[in-house]
Amino acid sequence: METLYSNEEQHIISHKGYGEEQVQVLEGLDAVRKRPGMYIGSTSLSGLHHLAYEIVANSIDEALAGRCDEITISILKDNSIEVIDNGGGIPVGLHPKLGVSTLQVVHTMLHAGGKFGSGAYTVSGGLHGVGASVVNALSERYMVESSRDGAIYRQSYEFGKPVTPVEKVGETEISGTRTVFKPDSSIFEETEFDYEFMLSRYREMAFLNGGIKITLCDERPDERIEKVLHYEGGIVSFVQYLNKSKELIHPIPIYIQGERGTSTVEIAMQYNNDYSENIYSYANNINTTEGGTHLTGFKTAITKVMNDYARKYNILKESDKNLSGEDVREGLTCVISVKLLEPQFEGQTKTKLGNSEIRGLVETIVNTKMADYLEENPAVAKIILEKCLTATRAREAARKARELTRRKSVMENTTLPGKLADCQEDDPALCEIFLVEGDSAGGSAKQGRDRKYQAILPLWGKMLNVERSTLDRVYNNEKLTPVVTALGTGIGEDFDISKLRYGKVIIMADADVDGAHIRTLLLTFFYRFMKPLVEQGHICIARPPLYKVSKGKSEFYAFSDKELERLLKERDWIKQECAIQRYKGLGEMSAEQLWETTMNPDTRSMMKVELENAFSADEVFSVLMGEKVEPRKEFIQNNAKMVTNLDI
C-alpha cells in the first residue's frame, strides 16, 4: 500500500470558449528538474504515476467543461504514456503577450494555462496550472498533438525544451489532444508504470465524473490489456462498487444532492453489516483524505437527522441517550463530492477542505433531504436505526474494556504486557517494536535484539479477525489487548497517535502460509482500528530469510526461491554441492542469525506498509477477511497467477 495521491489538479464545468487570449502567464519554468518533489510530491512510484495523472487531469477538465466525453490512457511498450481525449484541443496561435505559440507556452512555462480567471474553466483546483509544463520538464521525451479548427498541430520536447517548432502535420474533422511522454530515468527511482495502480486511480475518476468514458490500456504484455471505465450512475455506482463484497442491509444506495450558487453537493450512501465506517470525501474531484468542512457538515447532519427521526417515532425512549456519531456511521459506506468556485485547502497537499460556507451547505442539504428520505422510506429507516441501536449496545458493552486499554501517559510502564521486553530509549521516534509470532521466535528475538532501541512482544495463536467482530469483542480480545497496551495509543475513537511509544511497529511472522495469515489479521486490525499508523507509515513487515546457503566457510541467505536461484547462479555454485537449509519458521534461527538477517538495521530487508488508495485497501480487506465466500474465491482465482512464491 502506498500513500494516496496529493496535489491533484481538477477543474469543473464551463461552456465558455478557450482561445489564445484566455491563456495567462504567471512565471517561467524554473527549478522543476532541480526540485521535482516540490511539484509532484516525490520521485518514487507515486510521483511517477502523478505525471500521468496531471495530463489526464487536463482531459478531465475538458470533459467537465462540456467539450469531451472520451479519454484513452495507454502504457506503451517502452513504458511511456499516451493520453488522448476528444476535447477542444490546446490553442496553437501566437500568444498575445509572448509572441510564441500558445501550445509551447502551456508546455514550457509554469502557471500558464486557462485556469486563472480567464473564463475557459469556471472552477479549478489542483497544481495551479503547472501540470503539463512540469510533466514536460520531468520527461526525457514529450510530444503533444492538438487537433482543432480542422488541423493537427504537433510539437516535440526533450527535458522540457522544445526540439521542434509547432507545426501543422495534417488535417482532421475532429478535435482533441494527444500527449505522449517518457519520464526521465535520471530523476525517477523507478520508471515502470503499474497498471493495477493506474486502474484503481482512474476507476475512481470515472465514478466521480459519471458519463465520462475512460479507457486504460497496457501495451506491454504479449496480450494487450484494455479496461473501459464508464459509470453512468456516478457516485451511486461508486458506492455499489465499494459495497460489492459486503452484506447489505438495504439494496439501493441513498442519493441526495443540492446546490447553492456555483457550489454543488452530491452524496451517495449505503449501510452494510460491517462494524467499520468508510466515508470518502472529494472537493473538485480531489480526494480530501483528511476531510474538511464538507465531511464535518455531513457527520453533524447525519447524526442529527437519525436522532430526530428516532425520537419522533419513539425508537429512542425519553430515558435513552442520543445515538453517537460513531453509532450512526457504523457500517456506512458513503461518497461525498462537492464542487465549488474557489476551494481553500489546508496545506500544500490539499487533503483537507477549509471553505466554511460548504459546511453549512452540506448540513442544510443532508438535514432536509435525508429527513425526507427517511419519512418516505420507513422500512429502510427502521433497518438503519436498528443497526445504529445495535452499535450503541456494543459500544456500551465495550466501554469498560476500552478503559483498560487507555494509557495515562506515553511512557507509563506499570500496565505494559508481561511478555513485552521493552527497550531502554525514551524517544519514541528512535524506538521500534517487533510483534513476533510465537514464544520460541520471541525468545530468540529478545536475545538477539539491540536492547537500547528494540522492543519485543511475542504473540501466540491466531489474532481475532476484526472484520467480522463487534466492537466489544475487539476490546475484550486477549490476543489484541497486549498489542494495544504496548503501543499506548488506544484504538478506535480513543486513538491518539501522539501517545505512540514506538516509531516503527514491525510485524515479524514466519515465511509461510500461517505467517501470512497472521500478518493479514494484524494489518486488518491496524487498518480498521489504528488507521493513522498505516497512513503515516509506522507499520512495517519484516522479511525473514527462507533459505540459508553454505559452502565451505561461506554462507548466504535467500528470501525466496527466485533469489536462491540467482544467488547460486551469481556464485557459479551447484545446488547439490551446497548445504541448503530451508527455514520452516523463525524459531529455527539462532538469536545471532535472527539479528543478522531480520533485525539488524544495517543488513535486514523490510517492507514499509503505505496506503496507496483508501477505497482499494478497504475492498481488499473486505474481500479477504469478510463474511462473503464467493468474492474471496473470485479474488484468489483472479490473482493466483500473480503469485511468484506462496511462502513469501
CATH architectural designation of the largest domain = 2-Layer Sandwich
Q: Mean pLDDT, rounded to whole units?
A: 84
Name the CATH class of the largest domain.
Answer: Alpha Beta
Radius of gyration over C-alpha positions, nearest whole angstrom: 27 Å
Task: Characterize the biggest β-sheet.
Answer: 9 strands, mixed
Number of helices: 19
Overall 3D form: flat
Helix content: 25-40%
The percentage of residues in β strands lies in 15-25%
Walk me through this protein's architecture:
With 648 residues, this protein is α+β, with helices and mostly antiparallel strands. It has four domains: 11-229, 2-Layer Sandwich (Heat Shock Protein 90); 235-402, Ribosomal Protein S5, domain 2 (2-Layer Sandwich), CATH 3.30.230.10; 409-545 and 600-642, Rossmann fold (3-Layer(aba) Sandwich); 547-582, no CATH class. It has 19 helices and 26 strands. Strands 3, 4, 7, 8, 9, 10, 11, 12 and 13 form a nine-stranded mixed sheet that branches. It has a five-stranded mixed sheet with strand order 14-15-18-16-17, with helices on both faces. α11 (439-448) crosses α17. The two termini are 16 Å apart.
Keywords:
648 residues; alpha+beta; Ribosomal Protein S5, domain 2; Rossmann fold; 4 domains; five-stranded mixed beta sheet; flat; disordered N terminus
Blueprint of the fold:
Blueprint: E1 11-12, E2 24-25, H1 37-40, H2 45-64, E3 70-75, E4 81-85, H3 102-108, E5 112-113, E6 123-124, H4 131-137, E7 139-148, E8 151-158, E9 161-162, E10 167-171, E11 176-183, H5 195-208, E12 213-218, E13 225-229, H6 235-242, E14 254-260, E15 263-271, E16 278-283, E17 286-287, H7 293-312, H8 325-329, E18 332-339, H9 356-376, H10 378-405, E19 432-437, H11 439-448, E20 454-459, H12 471-476, H13 481-487, E21 504-508, H14 513-529, H15 531-535, E22 539-542, E23 547-551, E24 554-558, H16 561-570, E25 579-582, H17 591-599, E26 606-608, H18 614-625, H19 629-639
Parallel strand pairs: 3-12, 16-18, 19-20, 19-21, 21-22
Antiparallel strand pairs: 1-6, 2-5, 3-4, 4-11, 7-8, 7-11, 8-9, 8-10, 12-13, 14-15, 15-18, 16-17, 22-26, 23-24, 23-25
Helix pairs in contact: 2-4, 7-9, 11-17
